[in-house]
TrEMBL record:
Gene3D superfamilies: Aspartate Aminotransferase, domain 1 (3.90.1150.10), Type I PLP-dependent aspartate aminotransferase-like (Major domain) (3.40.640.10)
Keyword annotations of the record: Aminotransferase, Pyridoxal phosphate, Transferase
Species of origin: Arcticibacter pallidicorallinus
Keyword Membrane annotated: no
Protein name: Acetylornithine/succinyldiaminopimelate/putresci ne aminotransferase
Family assignment from sequence similarity: Belongs to the class-III pyridoxal-phosphate-dependent aminotransferase family.
InterPro entries: Aminotrans_3, Aminotrans_3_PPA_site, Class-III_PLP-dep_AT, PyrdxlP-dep_Trfase, PyrdxlP-dep_Trfase_major, PyrdxlP-dep_Trfase_small
UniProt entry tagged with the keyword Transferase: yes
GO molecular function, a single term: transaminase activity
Cofactor(s), names only, from the UniProt record: pyridoxal 5'-phosphate
Length: 379
C-alpha cells in the first residue's frame, strides 16, 4: 500500500518525495486539487473563529448560511433549500426519509448497479446483491429498475415515493444515460407525483463540465444529493430540495433529521471557498477540451472503450487481472488509477479539474506503457 506524506494540486507525494499524478482525485473529491490555497485559508480562518458550537440548526452559523446561499444561487430556483450532513450516505438517508415523509408513500425505486452509500438505508438502494446479502433484512419496499431503460419507467406509479438515481452512474463503470431517457424519467415522476432524487455526489461541482450533471439533460430533480467534491477535501454532504418539500421535516414529528456534525462550520467554510474557486477560476471552462484530449490520447489496442463525460471517465479493459496489474504498473510509474465497485474490468479516470494538458498527456503515456508492458508479460 502506498504511503503518502503530502499532497498539492494534482500531485500526491511519498516519503521519498516521489510524485504521483492523482488521476482519481481521492474518488471524485479533490476537484479543485489537493490543498487549494483558498480552501486552506478558509479552513484556517474558520478554525480561528470557532469549530463546533452545537447540534446543526441550533444557532445561526455564518459558514452554513453563506454556503447554503451560494449553493442555491447556482441551482434552479425550485431547489432553494439545503440540508447539510456529514457524507454522501447520510445525504441519501436524509433524502429517502424526506421523500417518504413528503409523499406519504413507501415504495422506493433504485437502479441496478447503483451506489448511494454504505449505511443501512443507502445499502438498501444499492443495485448489487453481492454487497447486500450479508446485511439482510434491509429497508422494505425497495424495487430496482434498469438504468437507461425506458420501458422500466412504467414501474414508477402512484405508490412510488421516489426514484433515486445517479445522474451519471459512477460505480457501475461510468454510464451516461440518454437525454430522451432522462426527460421521460422526469415526466413519469411528475405524472405520478413521485419525487426524483438525483445523486450528484460523484458528478457534482463541475466534474462533467457543468456544475451539476443534470444540466446536460435539461431536467431538474426534486431532491439533489451532494457530497465528495463539495467540501474541497473536507467531509460534508447535503440534500437539497424545494423549501415546501424540506419543511415537512420540521414537524409531526419535529426534528425529522438530526445530525450533530452535519454542516460543520469548518467544512462549510471550506465548501464555500471550493465553490467560489470553481466559479471564479472558471475551472469548468476547459473540461470539454480535456475530455477530448484524454480520448485522443487513450488509444491503444488493449483499450476497448473510453466511456463517460468530462473528467468522469473510464477505460474499459478485458479482465480484473489486467486492471489490477495495469493499475500497479501505473502507480509504480507515478499515476494513480483505480477501478469501480460494480465494474472491476475498467480503470477509473477522474483527475482534479485543474489538471493541465501536459499532465494529461504524460499520465496517458504512462497508462499506455503499462498496458503494453502487461501485454508483453502475458505473452
Ligand atoms: N453516491 C455516490 C454516487 C457515490 O459515488 C458515493 C461514494 O462513492 C456515495 C453516494 C456515498 O458517499 P460517502 O462515501 O460520502 O458516504
Amino acid at each position: 500500500m502506498l504511503h503518502i506524506e503530502r499532497a498539492e494540486g494534482v500531485y500526491l507525494y511519498g516519503p521519498d518525495n516521489k510524485s504521483y499524478i492523482d488521476f482519481v482525485s481521492g474518488f471524485a473529491v479533490s476537484n479543485v486539487g489537493h490543498r487549494h490555497p483558498k480552501v486552506v485559508q478558509a479552513i484556517k480562518d474558520q478554525v480561528d473563529r470557532y469549530m463546533h458550537l452545537a447540534v446543526y440548526g441550533e444557532y445561526i452559523q455564518s459558514p452554513q448560511v453563506l454556503y447554503a446561499a451560494k449553493i442555491t444561487s447556482v441551482l434552479p430556483e425550485s431547489i432553494n433549500s439545503v440540508y447539510f450532513v456529514n457524507s454522501g450516505a447520510e445525504a441519501t438517508e436524509g433524502a429517502l426519509k424526506l421523500a417518504k415523509r413528503y409523499t406519504g408513500r413507501k415504495k422506493i425505486l433504485s437502479c441496478n448497479k447503483a451506489y448511494h452509500g454504505s449505511t443501512h438505508g443507502a445499502l438498501s438502494v444499492m443495485g448489487n446483491e453481492y454487497y447486500k446479502d450479508a446485511y439482510q433484512p434491509l429497508l422494505p419496499g425497495v424495487e430496482f429498475i434498469e438504468f437507461n431503460k425506458e420501458a422500466d419507467l412504467l414501474k414508477i406509479d402512484e405508490e412510488t415515493a421516489c426514484v433515486i438515481m445517479e445522474t451519471i452512474q459512477g460505480e457501475a463503470g461510468v454510464r451516461v444515460p440518454d437525454q430522451v431517457y432522462m426527460q421521460a424519467l422526469r415526466k413519469r415522476c411528475t405524472e405520478t407525483g413521485t419525487l426524483l432524487i438525483l445523486d450528484e455526489i460523484q458528478t457534482g461541482f463541475g466534474r462533467t463540465g457543468k456544475l451539476f450533471a443534470f444540466e446536460h439533460f435539461d431536467i431538474v430533480p426534486d431532491i439533489l444529493l451532494l457530497a465528495k467534491g463539495i467540501g474541497g477535501g473536507m467531509p460534508i454532504g447535503a440534500f437539497c430540495a424545494n423549501r415546501d418539500v424540506m419543511s415537512v421535516l420540521a414537524d409531526n414529528p419535529i426534528l425529522g433529521h438530526i445530525t450533530t456534525f452535519g454542516g460543520h462550520p469548518v467544512c462549510c467554510a471550506a465548501g464555500l471557498a471550493t465553490l467560489s474557486a470553481i466559479i471564479e477560476e472558471d475551472m469548468m471552462a476547459g473540461i470539454d477540451e480535456k475530455e477530448a484530449l484524454l480520448r485522443s490520447e487513450l488509444i491503444h489496442p488493449a483499450i476497448k472503450e473510453v466511456r463517460g463525460k468530462g473528467l468522469m471517465l473510464c477505460i474499459q479493459l478485458d479482465s480484473f487481472a489486467q486492471v489490477e496489474e495495469v493499475s500497479k504498473l501505473c502507480i509504480a510509474q507515478g499515476v494513480i488509477v483505480d477501478w469501480f465497485l460494480h465494474c472491476d474490468t475498467a480503470l477509473r479516470i477522474a483527475p482534479p479539474l485543474i489538471i493541465s494538458h501536459r499532465e494529461i498527456i504524460s499520465a496517458c503515456n504512462i497508462i499506455k506503457n503499462a498496458l503494453t508492458e502487461y501485454e508483453m508479460r502475458a505473452k
